Amino acid sequence: MPRIPRTAGRPHYNVTFAVLLLGVGAYSLLQSMVVPVLATLMEHLHTTQETVTWLMTAYLLSASVATPILGRIGDRAGKERMLLVTLVALTAGSALAGVSNSIGWMIVARVIQGLGGGVLPLAFGIIRDEFPIAKVRGAVGVTAALTAVGGGLGLILAGPIVDHLDYHWLFWLPMIMTAVATVATFLFVPESPVRTPGKISWGAAALLSIWLVALLLAVSEGPTWGWGSARILGLFAAAVVVAVLWVLVELRSQAPLIDMRMMRIPAVWTANLVALLFGVVMYTAMTFLPQLVQTPAKLAGYGFTASITQSGVYMLPMTIGMFVLGVLTGPLAARYGSKLVLIAGGLITMVPFLVLSLGHDHSWQIYLASSLMGVGMGLAFSSMSSIVVEAVPAEQTGVASGMNANIRTIGGAIGSGVAASILANGVTAAHPFPPDSGYTDTFWFLTGSALLAAAAAVLIPAVRGAGADRSTGTPGPDRKATADKESAPA
Asked: What is the pTM of this model?
């Protein structure tokens, strides 16, 4: 099929939207699909528990570096161009993982897949460029919700894929999705009409990469290496020192990679604080709730002895809830405001962990908590992303949303590290399962984190509509064929 000429008119924004959702969905699946099958991969790849966890750590580190940097390059060099690069990396990484039979090559493949983190900020930027202003909030909300839904769906699909195919198909299926998305992007996603002039500050990019890797490596490996070990303390110290140096370089730069003045916008820094706390909640829950239900009751004295597939069924209400509420968030935010929706999401998210803190011995408690998590997280993730997009100029959408997504990842790493340390207390060679009280303490920790997220959301100031200039309140950059798109059906 020949590529649609750019001069023949821009594709309808709904076509562009469908392509973006395909790429974001594939990236989201890859985030979580490995989590419930780490034990299976450890057996097939003939490796150790400590080594197999690098399949998550490597992906996390790569995505943390790639997400803000690719978002910024897209703002300057063209979002469509960088989206193609990102999707090609996702496809290549998935293909390599699909043919890998050794842990070394699998880790390399996960590093390449992590470059797919750039899909999120690039998608948000393209939506802001291409959609009618009235449609931006809803489209951003659905896209943000899909990142969470895809994570939940990955937990559900992992079991049936491994049971009926084999572990290679955990990567073959996303590879097919990203390959189709790559071709569709080339055909149907228009070139960026909004760009930021100037060169990329590669020195700032290097400093950003160093402190992010140091921080995330420390919080990821803290439970294994020991929080008080010289390696962990050294990594934390390096992260602080390099982060300060990075900020100083960005403040003095004529063309900063990430504009510190943008990061100080009240709506941006408060939304990022909320993102950090929600990252703690969501990623920790998605990691350790399946672990709880898979625990053999006869050996541990608690748990549900669920298979990988059965543990996915427990997470199904959460996935459905995140999708439904993610779709509804746009209309709700238009009526009540994104801030109020975000606060409601935080308060609702607190309830399921309170339920699990008080008791997690019966299946109905898990299903109830899973359902409430879907409602709360669906509201929160969609509205949070909308707030960031609405708060910054159009030319900074990619980097702002990239940093917000990155901060969620950091929160997830922190939450998972803290939870792993809590659960490690009481584990011995004779009793390799965490004590039940460890899960109770973990759920109290997540209850407090969700409450803090709702409290932080109260601090978010009101922001102007998408596309408005912060200083003047005037409409943002003119979008080609906006009038035609405003009148077109959604």
From this structure: 0.80
